[in-house]
Specification:
Layout: E1 8-12, E2 19-20, E3 36-40, H1 42-45, H2 50-60, E4 98-100, H3 102-107, E5 113-117, H4 127-143, E6 150-154, H5 158-170, E7 174-179, H6 185-193, E8 197-201, H7 205-215, E9 221-223, H8 229-235, H9 237-245, E10 253-257, H10 262-276, E11 285-291, H11 296-300, H12 335-344, E12 348-352, H13 354-366, H14 373-387, E13 397-401, H15 409-416, H16 438-449
Parallel strand pairs: 5-13, 6-7, 6-9, 7-8, 10-11, 10-13, 11-12
Antiparallel strand pairs: 1-2, 1-3, 4-5
Amino acid sequence: MPENALSASFRCAEGCDFRADLAEVVYTCPRCGGLLEVDHDLAALRRRSGDEWKALFDGRFRLGAWPHGSGVWGKKEWVYPQLPVEHVVSMYEGGSPLLRVPRYASDLGLEDVWVKECGVTHTGSFKDLGMTVLVSAVNGMRAAGAKVRAVACASTGDTSAALSAYCAAAGIPSVVLLPRGKISTAQLLQPIANGALVLELETDFDGCMAVVRQLSETKDIYLANSMNSLRIEGQKTASVEIAQQLGWKAPDWIVIPGGNLGNASAVGKGFLLMKALGVIERLPRLVVAQAENANPLWRVTAGAGVKASAAVEVKPIAAQKTLASAIQIGAPVSAKRALRSLEALDGVVEQASEQELADAAARADRAGLFTCPHTGVALAALEKLAARGAIRRGERVVVISTAHGLKFSDFKVAYHEGKLPGISSRLRNPGVRLPATLGAVQDAIAARFGRG
């Protein structure tokens, strides 16, 4: 089936009959104000059987001719089928490792836990999966004559890194709005190095988001945050990869940290599409994990004793400082989308305190990982659900790690030096300073492991 036989378009996610071409500069429904979603022609997609889709994707995965070797563009028919390949801007994103972590699982009384390392990609976070689609779309718009001067985002770090890198590759100007003093040095340096206009605002992420939404009211500044549903199309391919790496089977549980909640909705969308096309037989259950200091979704679901569903209203809160800075968001723009995914995947919402997320990250590192604090939130949620028996031994769990731990080395250093404010570093492992003598080294080894 040729790609040009398939198409996708924007439609109102709230049920209005509004539709728009994917090349239009539009983010919300002009009739009801609801967010849009990318709608695929399922009837056309069903002309291939589930087995045929699996064979096609397996034949491309990390092997196919450019751009189909990309983990995202290898699923182009499910992402942006009508975009000409010459407009694709790809850094060979996706294809990240799915690691089984038996030592960590055993510590929790589980036996089948996996970590999807989405941070092992071009800019070190899952944001690359969505940004390749969005920037490719803008590249196509500009080639067709659209007057898009720049692409802009509000960010707590990772979105700005992905946007600036992909825009630099395409020769498209980028503008990033960051909350001053609230992101890691590595995250700040990435957009600076890639030539973005970096604006550090005296506010938090929600304040940056309010400004960038106003900025993008004119069509010459294109909005790159996850309220733009083109991002979701790329991010949903993480779900497809997970199933593919598990032999085209869904796990029992997917656990993901949630901030602006676009990725939580993308996970659900990916699994629902696979189920609809006969690629997988059943759906996993979804866990969205939030930091206790930035937990608007948890407050109106688990915190209120309410099952997550599309009928729940998420009220904005003032997010407090958290070590998981990328999800320090009190007014998530994709809350409704995430709730739909939670409802469809029989999901739950859990939260993690600062102590819990720091210890969970350290515990996973002791089992060979190197986790960012946001993944620590997801791991802490898994630990709590396992402890109370919601997740049972024998069930297969995949935790999505959203960014590379090296982007948060200050967090790691402070934990092991016992310098994180308010945190008891129970698993700290500081370096030991010694004189340069054999005896001193032998004594240190004996102190840790005993005499031989």
